[in-house]
Every structure is written in C-alpha cells, then in structure tokens.
What we know:
CATH topology: Rossmann fold
Order of helices and strands: EHEHEHEHEHEHHEH
Structural class: alpha/beta
Strand order of the largest sheet: 3-2-1-4-5-6-7
Radius of gyration: 17 Å
Shape: globular
Amino acid sequence: xxxxxxxxxxxxxxxxxxxxxxxxxxxxxxxxxxxxxxxxxxxxxxxxxxxxxxxxxxxxxxxxxxxxxxxxxxxxxxxxxxxxxxxxxxxxxxxxxxxxxxxxxxxxxxxxxxxxxxxxxxxxxxxxxxxxxxxxxxxxxxxxxxxxxxxxxxxxxxxxxxxxxxxxxxxxxxxxxxxxxxxxxxxxxxxxxxxxxxxxxxxxxxxxxxxxxxxxxxxxxxxxxxxxxxxxxxxxxxxxxxxxxxxxxxxx
Length: 252
C-alpha cells in the first residue's frame, strides 16, 4: 500500500495506459481522480475501480482547456483535501505527411500534448507548494520523442519537448520537494492499437524483446516514478520500449 491515502490526478485515463495507472494506484490505496474527455469512458473507468474496491472520482473534460484544468484541481481538493501526484497522460496523435500537415492539426496537437501537460503541472505545483509536503508530477512522453517516426513530426516534437520540460522544471520545483519526470512508452497494446490487426505482430517482429508492451508494463513503470522509492529521481525520462530505441527499425 505505497500510496495509502495519497491523492492522484490522472488525465486521459478512460482506457488504455491511463486507466491501468488508475487501477494500480487505487489497488495500492490511493484516492484517484480519473479524467477523460469522454464522460462515458471516465464514468466506466471509475465504476471499474469502485468494483475493485478502490477510491475514484470521475471528472470528464478537455485537458487542453486551462479553465477545465482549474476545475479539475478544485474538484480534487474539494473531494479529497489535497493533491500528492499528477500524471499528465492526456494526449492526441494526429498522423500526417509533413508537407501536407494543416495548421489546425498542428496547433491542436500542441494545445493538448504541450499546453495541457504544462498547465496541469503548473496548477498542481502551485497547490503542492502551498501544501508544503512535496509531490510527484509525471509527463507521458513517447519513443517518438527519441527516434523519427513517419508522419508523426508534430506529435514527436511535443513528446521531446515534454522531456525537456521535465528537465527544466527541476530547477523551479526541487525547492518544494516536488519531483518531475517523464515516461516514454514504445509500442503498446491498447484498445486503440488493437483496432489494427497487424499491430501486435509487426511490433513483436521489430522489438528486441519480441513483443510490444502491455498497459501493465507502462503503468508499473509510471507507479515507480511517483512512488516513495523514486524520491531522489527527478528530471529524468524513462523509456519503456522492449529495446526498440536501441535498434529503431521502422514498422513501415
């Protein structure tokens, strides 16, 4: 019960990696605030955690909207009395050829992936500073922030930027005992990727460990970085990719 009575916000958590992070946190005693832009996914995720005897509050909304981020934090504090951890998992992936990529797609990716993460961290850190008991913030990066991937120029750019943001914020947040890190998942089997019948076989072939990650693989690494055991780790990016970035063959 590493997280007994700790309060965690996880954005973009209605399914996939985010939901698994919420489930694991709740199993270890945390009060979890589960956000998703789709209210049905947020409510379904919360019901699942309640069924598993966990503590969870569903708050639906767009984490690219700063006003919503403020509401999310206010509801968290009103319900659970504080914030100990925030995992900025919400993000969007908009594939597109660089030569044809539209301004609308570009700025939407930046709004959610960078703006949502930046201002969630800012607002949460302000509350953690006032609480005077430290805290943990975690960004969700990607292997596409380390290696080029066709049709993901804008997305990969945002993920690399999040890792630099985590490194930079060490300077400003360490005096308040707030650690800030990033996790960079590689290919992962989720509800979204399962829609591609060739996804798992393709990535199993080009991943040194012979398989893509499961959501449990990613969530377990995320929990380590927000746990007491990682109290002296900050400004780092942990790649969880089965070795893919060491060799980097293209799925194409």
